[in-house]
Amino acid sequence: MAGRIRVVVAKPGLDGHDRGVKVVARALRDAGMEVIYTGLHQTPEQIVRTAIQEDAAAIGLSILSGAHMTLFARLFEVLREEGAEDIVVFGGGIIPEADIPELAKMGVARIFTPGSTTQEIVEWVRSAVPATV
Question: Which class is domain 6-125?
Answer without folding.
Answer: alpha beta
